[in-house]
Amino acid sequence: QVQLQQSGPGLVKPSETLSLTCTVSGGSISSSSSHWGWIRQPPGKGLEWIGTIYPSGTTHYNPSLKSRVTMSVDTSKNEFSLKLTSVTAADTAVFYCASGDIRFWGQGILVTVSS
Amino acid sequence: DIVLTQTPLSSPVTLGQPASISCRSSQSLVHSDGNTYLSWLQQRPGQPPRLLIYTISNRFSGVPDRFSGSGAGTDFTLRINRVEAEDVGVYYCMQSTEFPLTFGGGTKVEI
After folding, report:
1. Please, which residues have CB within 8 angstroms of residue A108's CB and are 6 or more apart in sequence?
2. CB within 8 A of A64, min separation 6: which ones?
3. Which of A18, A26, A27, B65 has the maximum number of C-beta atoms within 10 A of its C-beta?
4. The predicted structure's pLDDT at residue B9
5. How far apart are CA B83 and CA B61, in angstroms?
6. B107-110 and B10-12: which strand pairing?
């Protein structure tokens, strides 16, 4: 059974960069047809797809965030990461990592943007 | 971008009675490979979303058979055969036919 464990700070200052990591266990991040993603959920609101990354490094980003998002994969550590630059209060949300087929999800991290 | 519109926004239900949620897409979700990548997720209070149904009607592992999905093209439905107390939460449809991936706005199921 694949499990995803998220890590990263729960508080980020405005204009700084949000960085989160998702470690995959119970399976290889490089397995055939695998891909991985990030989704966020502002408090009390719905789900928003941030982006998807393939083990090759190919990425697809939400156009609304594309200028600020970078996703990467570290196959040696079986983990993938998210960076979101120039954050504002509007980026406050619970951030989830998930398998690309959304069968498996991380536990979620509430990231608050505040000084 | 593909817009998914869910109705109703909120669904008061009675235990043991059926419930259904509709998801309408702004364009066909049929992929060039012939599959339709429409999924349903459940989010219980305080928990991450959980996959219930994928490719319109396939139940994910461990999902009770009281949950079923149907539809084609642009119109899809999630049905709960007999609602149980543990089914309370918000339900989302999601399309992964094309990027950007998009979610419906959610339907709150409450007793």
Report:
1. A6, A41, A94, A95, A96, B48
2. none
3. A18
4. 94
5. 19
6. parallel
B4-39: pLDDT as tens digits: 999 999 989 999 999 999 999 999 999 999 999 999
What distance separates the 2 farthest-apart alpha carbons in chain B? 41
A22, A47, A94, A104: which to substitute to probe chain B, counting the most B Cβ within 10 Å?
A: A47
Q: pLDDT tens digit string along B26-81?
A: 999 999 999 999 999 999 999 999 999 999 999 999 999 999 999 999 999 999 99
pLDDT value of residue A1 = 86
Rounded to whole angstroms, the Cα distance separating A68 from A82 reads 10
A46 Cβ under 8 Å from any chain B Cβ: yes
Cβ-Cβ contacts under 8 Å, B100 against chain A: 49, 60-63
Nearest to B53 by CA among A108, B65, B45, B44: B65
| Closest CB to B102 among A49, A101, A107 | A49
Query: Which residue in B has a C-alpha nearest to residue A97's C-alpha?
Result: B48
